Amino acid sequence: MNGLETRRRSTKAILGVMLAVILVLYGFPFVYLLLTSFKTPSEAIAVPPSVMPNVWTLENYVAALAKEGVVPALINSVVTAVLSTLFSLVLAVPAAYAVTRYRTPSGRVFVLAALVTRMVPTIAIGAPLVETMRAMGIGDTSFALAIAHTTISLPLSIWLMASFFEAVPDEIEEAAKMDGASRLGALWRVVLPVVSGGLAVTAIFAFLASWNEFLFALLLTSVRAQTTPIVIANFQTQFGLDWGAMTALAAVYSLPVILLTLVLQRHIVAGLTLGAVKG
């Protein structure tokens, strides 16, 4: 028993060390970005670079937020990501529900086709989307960009929601129908509350797909609807990239996603474990 207990402790210790190493490697880039945002502009571009700031300052944050176009870009990013998330959920929920409840061969083909479209390179549909949006008269708008971002998030949203709906027993809906609810009423009043965690997970993925997207934002916007990733990429000085202001704005841009994840954390955990309690 002592030998077995020793091996267990050794295994736990090794796994703990590996987890710590992975956590450091994964988190160091963001920590370094955050520390750089508090450096003076000259120290931010110093060679060789230092990890910790010699002088802590908010100068980069003041300069970044005061730069022309930054605040409108932040607003555009929020509007675009929220619209894209809503579009994805409104389209994905009925599509995934129909596939999982009717269980037709065409439905399974549809889910597979949705995943295949997710594999198409973004650049391949970028140019046609630009021309389409211009022809519709909605070029350089958050609405057009949100539609483009929906093409990225929708296939994954359908696949995720289908997996969550599969975890809901049919008996729950049958009981609701026996009480007089229609299929749509059972979906709205019974099934969706059960898969609220799955909705949160899907919403997070759809929001992130739009929040972090760069290529469509570059192709479909010019002035009015530019999002923050485009503005960050355009931070230039006569000496090159303005690393201090770039890291400061990147840190600010990361806050909404972090806060959203923390707020929805309970629902996300519930959604990820939904399939484990089926039946």
TrEMBL record:
For whether the record's keyword set contains Cell membrane, the answer is: yes
- Report the residue ranges that make up the ABC transmembrane type-1 domain in this protein: 74-264
Keywords, sorted A to Z: Cell membrane, Membrane, Transmembrane, Transmembrane helix, Transport
Q: Which domain of life is it from?
A: Bacteria
Q: Does the keyword Methyltransferase apply?
A: no
User: According to its UniProt record, what is one Pfam family this protein matches?
Assistant: BPD_transp_1
Give coiled-coil spans as residue ranges.
none
Ranges annotated as spanning the membrane: 12-35, 74-97, 109-130, 142-165, 186-211, 243-264
Q: How does it sit in the membrane?
A: Multi-pass membrane protein
Q: What is its main location?
A: membrane
Which subcellular locations apply to this protein?
Cell membrane
Q: Which family does it belong to?
A: Belongs to the binding-protein-dependent transport system permease family.
**PANTHER family per the UniProt record, alphabetical:** ABC TRANSPORTER PERMEASE PROTEIN (PTHR32243:SF52), MALTOSE TRANSPORT SYSTEM PERMEASE-RELATED (PTHR32243)
Name of this protein = Carbohydrate ABC transporter permease
